[in-house]
TrEMBL record, chains A, B:
Organism: Lithospermum erythrorhizon (Purple gromwell)
GO biological process entries: amino acid metabolic process
Domain Aminotransferase class I/classII large, first and last residues per copy: 66-448
Keywords of this entry: Pyridoxal phosphate
Entry protein name: Transaminase
Classification lineage: Eukaryota, Viridiplantae, Streptophyta, Embryophyta, Tracheophyta
SUPFAM superfamilies: PLP-dependent transferases
Amino acid sequence: MVPSLSSSDNNGHVSSTPDTCSDNKVVPVSSIAAALAKPDESPYYIGFEKVRVDEYHNVSNPEGIIQLGLSENTLSLDLLKEWLNKNLNESLSQGSSDGLINVDKLAPYQQFDGIMELKKVMARFMSEVLGGGTIEFDPLQVVLTCGANPANEILCNCVADPGDAFLVPAPYYPGFNRDMKIRSTVELIPVPTLSSDNFIVTIEALNIAYDQAKKQGKNVKGLLFANPSNPVGNMFNKETLQNLLNFAKEKNIHIISDEIYAGSRYGDDKFISIAEVVYPESIEKDRVHIVYGLSKDLCIPGFRLGVVYSWNQDVLTASKKLTRFCSVPLPIQQILLSMLSDGKFIQDFMKTNQERLRKRYSIFVEGLEKLGLGYVKGSAGLYCWVNMGRLMSSQDEKGELELWDKLMNIAKISVTPGGACHCTEPGWFRCCFARLSVEDVCLTIERIKRIVESVKPKCCGCQCDRNRAK
Amino acid sequence: MVPSLSSSDNNGHVSSTPDTCSDNKVVPVSSIAAALAKPDESPYYIGFEKVRVDEYHNVSNPEGIIQLGLSENTLSLDLLKEWLNKNLNESLSQGSSDGLINVDKLAPYQQFDGIMELKKVMARFMSEVLGGGTIEFDPLQVVLTCGANPANEILCNCVADPGDAFLVPAPYYPGFNRDMKIRSTVELIPVPTLSSDNFIVTIEALNIAYDQAKKQGKNVKGLLFANPSNPVGNMFNKETLQNLLNFAKEKNIHIISDEIYAGSRYGDDKFISIAEVVYPESIEKDRVHIVYGLSKDLCIPGFRLGVVYSWNQDVLTASKKLTRFCSVPLPIQQILLSMLSDGKFIQDFMKTNQERLRKRYSIFVEGLEKLGLGYVKGSAGLYCWVNMGRLMSSQDEKGELELWDKLMNIAKISVTPGGACHCTEPGWFRCCFARLSVEDVCLTIERIKRIVESVKPKCCGCQCDRNRAK
Ligand SMILES: Cc1ncc(COP(=O)(O)O)c(C=O)c1O
Ligand SMILES: Cc1ncc(COP(=O)(O)O)c(C=O)c1O
């Protein structure tokens, strides 16, 4: 027998490991593993990899790449540090008779969906942050997960079967593709929005996308969005939310509203949660589910705390059982229980953090304005949605990727191109500013300037093509 | 239009929430959610629920149900407590210049599959515990997860497609059904073992099960087992492991070896990991994957640390990407990094914990012997596999469930009936002894005695039917 160089499984996946002899067959992996084993092609993930090996540091690597592709907020770590140093031991000693760390409470098994004490303070916190203090959240509807990623996946598992589809107003958070599609194999159908509508989705666009999907035999099960929007940074007003709920009602589909940035506001607008629209009593609540978490608003993605909040009893029961795969360690739960129970700390933290976000945002957009670059006026989030179309050699996907590459390799800044967010208008880039010091914001603007200047060479000031912004 | 009382989705799931009016349709949930929303029917989970509402406590609820259904070890929490009280702050301050908690290291995002420092000490720890110090484990093959449950699920995702099947020597750990079947929808085919073989699976039984599955058109993708065995408590010897690997090679399928109890030994036998059989160089390694974790051997299920260990590059790459749904919080990683790096503590802990397990096991089986109950001589694990067949009114599933009910409601002890573990011989029960004090072991034996005596009424001592053990 002639040894073959590769073998293929049922799913047409050709294994990468060569067969060394006919007796030693290469064992096929699943189609999920085969797909995930391939290198990431999205610039969103390529950017992470590039930064990983050459990240900027003001002292140790001043020529490195500045990371603006990661939605992370480090502006208020000093406050967290202070709190933790003061309260860590106490938080882990809660309920112990000798004042020592309460291992009996931390080590054993507990319900995987979280301890009730933490659900209670989380519900109160959500009522403040998402509901402005006027909407009640019920601890019995809270399911805790290790991060918002698993919360999104769980909701996807609970409302859609393999092959079903979600409508997702685009541009949308690139992570949704992983959360909803890696393992759940549902389809995300981007519903285009326009810069002229401030990237707010219209019911017309939803209807068109829905009808088209139906025509193609797709089973649309829900509407998925981040509010505040990632990557745009704006928020839905009450009327839009009401329209979205009516649309979902008409089509008898679910709504998953990812509100993880609700407390990371830097504008003056009031945030309105989908909870406010279904509140207080409505059968429509059964189709509405909220994702929340502390990764953004408390600046602790490393602590991994996410929330599924639902009014649907079946979804709640199922979600709780699914937390066996994503439960939050008890020490983390105890620390966060203490932290969220410390009303004064939380209030001060939220206020200061929002002020710092606002300042950082202002400096960043001031810089953009000086460069003559447009952006969407944001209200919340850790990023700014910037129009760099005029720096592109062609107004299409190719031009956008070329510019992204230039930004990465010449300007040495890593940003997320709109295409990675399924934005249909080329030229938009998401720039996360909340892990930059003031100096680094200025450096970033300086570096973008290099590109701006390279496409707009100084000349006599005439209106020739080379001088005109595209 | 007449309002209907319920609506049904594509999967034939009838939603439990009634339709209140024809305009307000009940929104269907996924088939996964519909299945999970139903009450648990396995005695394994019913037992948990019963104990939850009426758990025994020597002072506050002395008449409550003693939990022997949960595989948890609390025998060495005192050692953990001492270590944590001494080292917690230092472990969380690692790398900080001011000696304070290093928030810069704990709060931000990190690779979801775990920090390299922890992978390194974990590989060393596995080399000790699984490899007896002679087998090397490579940190690059370690993927960290929040508990062993997600590790099992991830491996299932990586080797099997929906509808594929695993062969699982039975009796097996009931949790496998959830880990592998809730979301992955693979089939677990129990391969029967006999008490006369000490419940060790034979290659003949595997071949029969494999051929039968093939005949039924099933796609067998792997062999799944816990070694040391849960629920039996014994271990595979090297020859059996070699045979299992040969079987897997012949059928070109995977092996998932869950070795989470490798360090919870109380017998004199040496543990042999599947790693030893594939070591040091063999193409067969590509089909072998190990699950490990700290929930059992370090008595910290509340800390949620699990491990996927694989030699298969595709499986490793895919597993790492799947950890976005089950990543370990950084504070937990830092604490465990310190703990596992503390060689003296770990060595003392393992030794003392094993001694304590051995003692508790001895007292328990002594009690069983006095009651005239048989059991499998165990080597590792937190439980004992007990033959209570002679206490049953009929030697079948019904008799087993009746006895289980009697144990729960009359003797007030919660155990796992063999049927819940897919054991084919009725009458076997798994009794976890590692969360009981010595007094509680004695009380448990006392309580079982009630049942023993109720089926063996004192009489003249003749050999009449009522006196003879069935
Ligand atoms: C909209 C949105 N949802 C969820 C997440 C993931 O949050 P976590 O880190 O808690 O999993 C992110 C992170 O960027 C996000 O932007
Ligand atoms: C064989 C086996 N694997 C995995 C687990 C789950 O471990 P964890 O709590 O780390 O998820 C258990 C727990 O009982 C087990 O017995």
